[in-house]
Design brief:
The chain is an alpha/beta fold. It folds into two domains: 122 residues, HAD superfamily/HAD-like (Rossmann fold), CATH 3.40.50; 64 residues, no CATH class. Helices cover 46% and strands 11% of the residues. It is built from nine helices and five strands. The protein has a five-stranded parallel sheet, with helices on both faces. The longest helix is centred in the N-terminal third of the chain and has 19 residues. The radius of gyration is 18 Å and the shape is elongated. The two termini are 21 Å apart.
Length: 210
């Protein structure tokens, strides 16, 4: 484990850099843009009601499902439940993720000059990430909700990531002390707790380059 208060094995030892998305690569404002603006707006048009009424109805539906049900996280479930065209809704949040030039720069440098494989390990659904960050330079997205139908990045999620990455040495950077740090570090993954402001220097420090 490697966080702000501890260090782990040799810097730059990983062959795969894994990153969380919301709160790490990007801010999380795109979630409100999608779930509480774009999706209710399209539902309002389909149902022939005002936006505020549509948002209230949709919010009650979210609450009735609850955050411990994986359907709560899946856009396709809600498109079907509300009779919406998913492509139209996603179009309204195209590029909505706020990702700094420094973050994009390090992703391109990792994959380019340094030849490091970069993956996302997140509970955000893959289709939503591709909508809000369509040009994100990563090699693969692993989503606990989309790929494995798990609400959280639990031990089985991380074991699956490790297996699919062929036993490569993984270093993960994320903002959740349990699902980004404690669980993956217990499986031998180098973990660093970061946020959007500290991600870039933390990756460089891990690699021993800056």
């Amino acid at each position: 484990m490697k966080d702000s208060n501890s260090s782990s094995s040799g810097a730059g030892g990983a062959t795969v850099i894994s990153l969380d998305f919301c709160g790490t690569i990007s801010g999380c404002s795109f979630l409100d843009e999608f779930w509480f603006k774009a999706l209710p707006a399209h539902y309002a048009r389909v149902a022939g009601i005002g936006f505020e009424e549509a948002r209230n109805r949709v919010s009650r539906m979210y609450d009735s499902i609850g955050e411990e049900d994986v359907r709560w996280y899946l856009p396709d479930y809600w498109f079907s439940a509300l009779g919406l065209n998913g492509k139209d809704v996603f179009h309204d949040v195209d590029g909505a993720a706020v990702i700094t030039g420094k973050v994009l720069g390090i992703l391109n440098e990792l994959r380019g000059r340094l030849g490091v494989r970069v993956i996302l390990s997140t509970n955000a659904p893959t289709d939503l990430i591709k909508a809000v960050a369509p040009e994100l330079p990563v090699d693969r997205i692993y989503s606990s909700t989309y790929d494995m139908k798990h609400v959280h990045k639990d031990e089985s999620f991380w074991r699956s990531v490790m297996e699919r990455e062929g036993g490569s040495h993984i270093a993960h950077f994320g903002d959740d002390p349990i699902y980004d740090i404690r669980i993956p570090s217990s499986l031998g993954i180098d973990c660093t707790e970061v946020n959007t402001m500290t991600l870039v220097p933390a990756v460089w420090a891990y690699l021993g380059l800056k």
